[in-house]
Amino acid sequence: MTIKIGMVGTGGFSQKHADILMKMDQVRLVAVCGTSEEKAKRFAEQYDGMRGYSDFHAMLDAEKLDGVYLCVPPMAHGEMELTLVKHRIPFFVEKPLGVTTAAPEKVVEALEKAPLVTAVGYHFRYLESIQYLKRLLKDHTVGLVTGRWMGSMPEVSWWRNQALSGGQLNEQATHIVDLLRYLLGESEEVHAYEAQRVMNKRKEDVTVADVGTLSIRFKSGVIANITNTCILPEGLDEIGFTMYTDSAVIEWTPESLTIKTGKTEKVMVDTQDPYYQEDEAFIQSIKSGSNEHILSTYQNAYNTQLMTDAARVSVEKHSPINLND
Ligand SMILES: NC(=O)c1ccc[n+]([C@@H]2O[C@H](COP(=O)([O-])OP(=O)(O)OC[C@H]3O[C@@H](n4cnc5c(N)ncnc54)[C@H](O)[C@@H]3O)[C@@H](O)[C@H]2O)c1
């Protein structure tokens, strides 16, 4: 069975997924849709048999697609997902689901009425270290978590515009929010602070905050804090989280997991490519017609979007936000 894939977006992450997919037997990249025909054709030329389009509907009308990848910035989400639900075409969405919950909420409603195979690019869930940690935490009582996404500001112009990207928590630290949800369950309250300290003085069009901190109270009673900044010079990135439990300090980064008990220190280094794993899970799920291989479905990722959006509201209202309200 050959799975025919269409992509939307001609940027870095369409390229990332396309390069992985072309290595898979039984997958063919047949179409790409970009913001201009020229960009789409230039992207398509890299892959044998791929055709370029500048109109999403024209692509769907002309091609018989088994699955679509949506690798577009946060503000471009919503209408395409609703169209795919209507056409019954499984889709993979790069995180985050949107700028706020407004567009994703409608997609979740549509999926409730008409379930479909969907996947969201919260790729860290597929790491061996995260799978191992998920099993390990059954025997540990986590007290407190500190998480972080510290780095520099991406160059693309949409990223520094709050209305287009939703800011760094929505765009990047969302990965840490999602991992904590995956490992610790749902939360009931968030309280966030954000500020502009540096980047808006360097570039006129910066409307996102460049430092932020989010406190979370989970339903289990665990409390956590996730801190982010995009003011650092290149090369000083710090991404990950530390869990403080009754028997160990557990440190996770995208590269490794370290478990310190005071007497022993165990280090686990990830060797598999989580992007390959998530793409393979999506292709397998298209074939089987069920979400069973997928660790982050659209509906599940929506709960992460609810949390990051509640953090945005918390910043605006200068107040904690109860997620049960
Ligand atoms: N999971 C990860 O590790 C990871 C890493 C990087 C990026 N991403 C996500 O992938 C998404 C895209 O990021 P990127 O780095 O590829 O950005 P990019 O700016 O390199 O590319 C975005 C592309 O989308 C196109 N686009 C915008 N609106 C469109 C529309 N309505 N129709 C068709 N094309 C449209 C742009 O022209 C551009 O080609 C972002 O949401 C980002 O957060 C995820």
UniProtKB/TrEMBL annotation:
Record-annotated GFO/IDH/MocA-like oxidoreductase domain positions: 132-235
Gene3D superfamilies assigned: Dihydrodipicolinate Reductase, domain 2, NAD(P)-binding Rossmann-like Domain
**What GO MF annotations does this protein's record show?**
nucleotide binding
Q: Which Pfam families match?
A: GFO_IDH_MocA, GFO_IDH_MocA_C3
| Residues in Gfo/Idh/MocA-like oxidoreductase N-terminal domain copies | 3-122
Query: PANTHER family given for it?
Result: D-GLUCOSIDE 3-DEHYDROGENASE, UDP-N-ACETYL-2-AMINO-2-DEOXY-D-GLUCURONATE OXIDASE
**What's the protein here called?**
Predicted dehydrogenase
Species annotation: Halolactibacillus miurensis
